Amino acid sequence: ELWQKPPGVPAAATLTLSIEPNGEIHVDELAATAPTARIAANAVLEPGGRLVRASAEEVFVEGLLDVALMADRAGQEDDRLHIAVNGSYLNARTLFDELPFPRTGGSDGTSSGLPFLFEAGVDTVEVRGESFTNARLYLDSVERGIRGFSFSGQTRAGPVEVRFGPDGDLEGPRQLVVNSADASALLRAFTGFDNASGGELYLEAREIG
Predict the structure, then answer these.
(1) DSSP readout, 133-201?
(2) How far apart are CA 185 and CA 183, in angstroms?
C-alpha cells in the first residue's frame, strides 16, 4: 500500500478507460491529486487484467517517491515486464530488505521469483536513514529467483557499488562484489546493521560448484 487518503483531506481523481473489440482494457487517463500524493498515468491491460504496458509521467507520494516510470513487455525474455524508473527521490527500504542476498529458488528446483526487469536512475535514494545520490539500480528477476542485481551511488564519503550475478554468461557461477567508501552506510542500508561508523569495505565472493 503506497498511500491512503486520511479522512477529511481533500483529494480528486479521474479515471477514463475503454474496452477494445479484442477485449483489451485501455486506461486512457488515471489521475489523482492530494496534498501528499499525485499520479498521472495511462496503461493497457489484457482482457484478463494482465498489464501489457504503462506510463506514468508523475508518481509522487510524500516521503516515499517522486518519479516517472515506463513499463512494457515488448521484446522481453519470457514476456516479462520491463520497468524503468527515473526521478528525484525514492525510499527503497522495502526493496533493500531482500538484497543483496536474494532468494535464488528452492533446492527442489521450484520457482520462487516474479519475472521482471527493473532499472532505475534516481537523484537520491534513501534507505534506513542513509542517502545515496546519483543512484543507479538494476534488478533482473526470473522464475528461479533474482538472477542479477547492481546498485551504485554516492555517499558523503565517496562512491558505493554492489554487484550480484553470473560471472560471464547467464548460466555461469554467481559472484558478489561490494566496494564502498563508507562501509557503515552500506551495511546500515542493506542489512540494518548500525553498530559501525565509517570505514571502507571491499568484498568479492564467488559461487563454487
Answers:
(1) EEEEEEEEEETTEEEEEEEEEEETTEEEEEEEEESSSTTSPEEEEEEES-HHHHHHHHH---S--S--E
(2) 6
144 near 106, Cβ under 8 Å?
Answer: no
**Cα separation, 139 vs 85, whole angstroms:** 12
Please write the tens of the pLDDT for every residue from 56-114. 999 999 989 999 999 999 877 778 899 999 999 999 876 666 554 444 444 444 445 67
The pTM (predicted TM-score) of the whole model is 0.82
Half-sphere exposure (Cβ direction) of 16: Cα atoms closer than 13 Å:
6
Calculate the CA 111 to chain-centre distance: 20
Instruction: Summarize pLDDT for 25-63 with one digit per residue, the tens.
Output: 999 999 999 999 999 999 999 999 999 999 999 999 998
Q: Which amino acid is at 143?
A: E
